[in-house]
TrEMBL record:
Pfam families: ABC_tran. It comes from Nitratireductor pacificus pht-3B. Signal peptide: none annotated. This is ABC transporter. SUPFAM superfamilies: P-loop containing nucleoside triphosphate hydrolases. Keywords: ATP-binding, Cell membrane, Ion transport, Iron, Iron transport, Membrane, Nucleotide-binding, Transport. InterPro entries: AAA+_ATPase (IPR003593), ABC_SmlMolc_Importer (IPR050093), ABC_transporter-like_ATP-bd (IPR003439), ABC_transporter-like_CS (IPR017871), ABC_transpr_FbpC (IPR015853), P-loop_NTPase (IPR027417).
Amino acid sequence: MTAGVSFAARLSFEGISHSYASGAETLRDVSLAAEPGEVLCLLGPSGSGKTTLLRIAAGIETQNAGRIRLNDRVIAGPGVFLPPEQRSIGLVFQDFALFPHLTILDNVRFGLTALSPSEARREAMIALERVGLETYASAYPHVLSGGEQQRVALARALAPRPAVLLMDEPFSGLDSRLKDAVRAETLDILRQSRATAIVVTHDAEEAMRMGDRIALLKDGRLVQTGTAEDLYRNPSDPFVAGFFSELNEFTGRVVSGAVETPLGRFPAPDLTEGEEAIVAVRLSGFQVNQQGGTIPARLASRRFLGVVEHLELAVPGADRHVRARVRCGTLAPGARDIWIDVVPADVLVFARHSFETSGESA
Ligand code: ADP
Ligand code: MG
């Protein structure tokens, strides 16, 4: 028997810490919940602990501290460990390997060992219909495209009707042309199945496209959780800001409530007088003009990227080039000395105290 949940469930992590036998801490006091029916994206750079957190939820790995709850029931915690097959949690691995020598139906049936053969067959067909591949039931995986194989892996994970589905970088093996389409299909299927899902990715744009909410991990710690818009507009620190957009960074002290930079003075209402601050300006945060403007700049390089062009600008007082992205055609082909204006909404001011700069500094 499984936990017996076939409707959307809430999966919560409470104070999860973990380290592998080899030593270093991989997760530190992570508390996070995926709400019923929600698609929660777990985002973070490589090595931040995303896969480890999924493995703990699935019961393949055990935490050193903390609890995992499915609805109100503790499924892993001090003195409690529900084995993977009883958790009602499905897992789609990064490489979603299908068995090449089994038919597509048998691949999907694989995890349905608790059912009679005829029931297993029926449930597997229902899962294949859900992903639109029922006509391929008796074919073998090699006849399918990469995107279709990914859908079979999704059907295999959905077949036991898990309450929660965990997907570990499910699109990373697909080429970029396929990715958008498969991502959209997967999202549709997740919505229809009404399962609660946690989707792992290291790609901020993918997280923004898929997630109802995003949880950002860094070095095993949860840095910020919220909607894509929350994290983009109100990042809690320069790391979060730098994950969602490329930045020019300047440092300076707060004097009379503002920080002086080569791009102008920016208000820092939440910071203490005299405190060191980081001012981050998104590459999209510039208006450029050849006739006039606030700050003079000289074009050091420009690169055509289609819709936009990437500029490197020498600005008086800045010890590195300021980088900007502007619409192609804004500047004449031979432009050299220009003017720039900074868009206030694209400027973020942080207290420096405990943060290192993200390495993207200008
Ligand atoms: P992510 O999925 O975000 O890339 P992981 O959870 O795979 O991160 O890894 C987190 C950290 O744990 C990394 O430093 C990684 O090297 C380490 N790690 C992962 N798996 C193991 C393992 N089986 N044994 C020891 N260390 C591991
Ligand atoms: Mg991983």
